[in-house]
Amino acid sequence: MSEWCSKEATIPVDNHILQGLTRPDLKEIYERGLRDLESARTLAELEDLRVRYLGRKAELTNLLRSIPELPASERPEVGRFGNLVKRELEQALESARKDLEQAELVKGLEKDRVDVTLPGRPWPLGHLHLIEQTRREIEDIYVGMGYDVVQGPEIETDYHNFEALNHPEDHPARSLHDTFFVDETILLRTHTSPVQVRVMEQQSPPLYLIAPGKTYRRDSDATHTPMFHQVEGLVVDRGVTLADLKGTLDTFAKKMFGEERQIRLRPHYFPFTEPSVEVDVSCMACNGQGCRLCKRSGWLEILGAGMVDPNVFGFVGIDPEEYSGFAFGMGVERIAMLKYGVNDLRLFYENDLRFLRQF
Amino acid sequence: MKAPLSWLRDYVDIALPPEELASRLALTGTEVERVEPLGAPEDDAVQKHFVVGKVVEREKHPDADKLSVCRVDVGEEAPRTIVCGAPNVAAGQTVAVVLPGAVLAGGMKIGEAKLRGVRSSGMILSAAELGFEAKSEGIMVLPEEWQAGEPLGEHLPVSDWLLDVEVTPNRPDCLSIKGLAREIAAITEQPFAEEQDFGFPVSERPVEEDISIEVPAPDLCPRYAARVIRGVTVGPSPLWLKARITAAGMRPVNNVVDVTNYVMWSLGQPLHAFDLASVAGGKIIVRRARPGEGIRTLDGTQRTLTDDMLVIADAEKPSVIAGIMGSIDSEVTDNTTDILLEAANFARFSILKTESALSLRSESSTRFEKGLDPNLIPPALDMACALLTELAGGEVSRGTVDIQAGPVEPWQLELRVARVSQILGIEVTKAEMADILRRLGCEVEDAGDRLRVTVPTFRLDLEREIDLVEEVVRIYGLERLPATQPCRPSGGGGLTEGQRKVRRVEDLLAGAGLTQAVVYSFVDPVWLAALRLPPESPQAKPVAIRNPLSVEQSVMRTMLLPGLLATAARNRAMREERIHLFEVGRTFHPEQPSEFGGGLPREVNRLGFVLSGPVAEEHWEEESRPSDFYAGKGLVERVLQGLGVTAGYGRTDKPFLHPGKAAQVLVDGEEAGWVGEVHPLVLQAFDLPEGLVAAELDLDALCAKGSALTVFEDLITYPAVEQDLALVVDQNLQADRVLRVVAEAGGPLLREARVFDVYEGPQVGTGRRSLALRLTFRSSERTLSEEEINRLRSELLPVLRERLGAELRS
Ligand SMILES: [Zn+2]
What we know:
The structure holds 2 protein chains of 2 kinds. By secondary structure, chain A is α+β, with helices and mostly antiparallel strands. Chain A has helices spanning 24-39, 43-54, 59-65, 75-111, 130-144, 158-161, 194-202, 242-257, 310-316, 332-340, 347-350, 353-356; strands at 148-149, 155-157, 186-188, 207-216, 227-237, 263-270, 273-282, 299-308, 324-331. Chain A has a 7-stranded mixed sheet with strand order 1-4-5-9-8-7-6, sandwiched between helices. A two-stranded antiparallel ribbon of chain A has the order 2-3. In chain A, a hairpin with a 2-residue loop joins strand 6 and strand 7 (273-282). Chain A is rod-shaped. The two termini of chain A are 50 Å apart. The relative contact order of chain A is 0.10. In chain B, 26% of the residues lie in helices and 28% in strands. In chain B, helix 14 runs antiparallel to helix 17. Zinc ion binds at residues 283, 285-286, 290-291, 293-294, 298 of chain A.
């Protein structure tokens, strides 16, 4: 029997309820009864005791039944104390029964055991694609900074994809070699940057937005897939500076890759931004010390960015003397590969469940 | 662009260690792909082992036919004995010797060695062993005037560093040693040394007597200049030239070709040398090709030209595809004595188009395609004439044929001082700006609140004020910019309701055990047939890509299903049993107008899934159900619930679905998708086993339909009461017909009716089945009494009997 359901061992023989009882037989029944009940170890034993002390042929029952035949002087005492003793014994019996029942239940549970190391019944759990997870992380970071998330078409006009982004007609990217064309003027967008143009055509500054989506280039090898994902960013407002771009991307890099990350800007060239920069983040594998991942440089390139070129503002009718802005574009796969250590771009598109279920 | 440091040092002092120089270049916009040592290690301990030697004696090796035993004077007390295997070694030669203790390029260590019994204390070097050419026939024979024992490094680049830089397309001026050196001078604040004047012997004969030139296509050739050099001797280049050509990654050919390449590498201006004897009629015509005209280019390929390509032709035929590659016939050969040297400027767009049409690029065309300064031409011709006459002899005919539309002069730009900090977010002083621009080769004049900047013609990319701002910050240093945040005055930002809904659907499916796939948007047109789509169906008329990478990726998908089936099949081949995949992505529909206009095809965001194999993972205690129609439908119902959309289901005859186990999903009477077991013939075509259920839903339509806001309804004060009703109906009567009649007949207090059990069997008789319905009654005004419910229920029965032939199951 467990500790917490055992009773106090002392039986209150001189119970105040029975004060004034003079008959030794009643007193003896009472004390013996309580003692016996206390020592009962099973429900069957308890049942025997019930019959013995409270049954129809029990001593006490007989005594109570015989009251009318008792001398008148004895009747009150036997009547009063006999019933009291009966009630007390009934209560004691009840409480002993409860104790024993609980004890038996607990004893039964001890035998009812499972192998807790066997697997649980499966509740199905699937996985979001790593590109989706990464895109959401990027979106959430910029949404937290007050950006909207917008979308544009994947099949684009040459005008939005190139011309309005200041790519001269003879720009190499506009060749059949690098871009998928549907016809002369319609193509699969080669970057998410045309969304910049579409938004600026329709809305006036201030603009704070990112545009995630699929993009396409005519390239397929170990480090290029013909479809990939980008997230474009665009801010146009009064007084936006290159230093603001640096701060924004610094915040992004820290939220995406960890507080201890640093960024570095290198001048670069893009047709639709000027000044243009490429942005590196300090290598997370070696903490900037130089390793195989960062080719010993301590830095990993993560995105391209720059100040919106005044020519682009010209195409969409925004006055570059009143407004300035910055834009950036990053490859979702690249960010995912760096963050999660994926070493082969093609894994993203093979959709092998063994890969997808890891994340 | 490969640039040896020793070559850059012709123009600028470089004190920085190569790695630091590379990082400085990278941080100012010139990406350095590699920095690597060339030749032997640079340290003095190694260098002192490379010396000039004189072969005093040569004898045949007593025990080896091909070896010579030489006595070589390397400036020591006595000549050394060196065993040499080269066939051309001879007494009296001046040679390059490496002594024991040295390390060659690639790490090979030189020690004392015994060759067939003769001890050799050193090695006589070939040009290849010093990296001056790819392969040598014998040892290098050096000029006689070099003295025995002199360090070889005083005469030849025994040891060097190579920078391999990636030049951005706006900086073709840096595709030259000189341009790169000018950039290095600017970023390291070192003086930049222009080359000296070039002198060369000039004959009395005017160039016009040698050659006449016409440019009938001036739009494609803004400047064409030529000189003639007569009496040259074509032969191998000297070692220093071979060494530089090799270090630059080119192959030494002969002195004439090497000089043209050398000048191109030095100055960035491509040159072309013709054998004057091969120029028919002494005439050069810079014209468009005649349609169908052919040329066999230097790479040995016969090419057919079109009339938008520019050629350099003589009186008879084209001999060069202008700026790109010459023909084999006009090439300078060992017998050439007279040379026509061309330096021209070609329109970049024409070069690009021709390159792309012919899939042909060269060192020359990669420069022209980015646009070159026409003023590079005179110095390039001068440098080439000086080198050619020095190395190959001959005389330059007097004068230059130089045909150009008009001179290109330096131009002026204004840079507002305040504008710079407005764009950059940092104060740069006027003096700093002026200093930076001057270092880059500009002339700068202070005009109060602005600088007046004269741009040299080699910086064709500096056209606007913003270009100057970029130059300032590039050299000033991006690392000096502070990191600030733009202040967003109006706050805001966030996902739209539609974007949140798509995320919810994705989460919901992942929560139900499906894994998300991301599949290419372009598909194999074969799949359209594999889906048994009739040719006239809109799904069988996809957007086609004109220039696909392969036929397998040549049309834009109109459905998600084929990509998902292919993905399932690929996983199946990897022995996956349980394949539950979903995708959210766009499909493309050319026959419908796009919301974006512009003649674009309509793009629809769709959700698709496929379920193959058991619904749940294998478990020791429980058997899993198969992925059948109802598994798919349950998932569709869940998605719709998540979007707050109610839908109906009707039969469908989509050719790719099982005719009896498929439904269209109807929202407000319009098809918003389908769900069904995929047709076994389709599965066969995709190499998939039978028993696969799939669905596709139009997410755009569903997101637009679902209610944005759930308004509170009190379901607690007056609780609902449920009543079960088991009906026996004809076996073919569809459940939703029963439910519809129940809903119509149940009155306003009937809030919901659904099927919770279906029984077919002997108890209800053949051709019949029992549907157990759970009816939910609720009033929003009072608690319904049992009598009321019983009355409603009993009123229903005669209607159901009459309209559906339904009987209460006993
Ligand atoms: Zn690293």
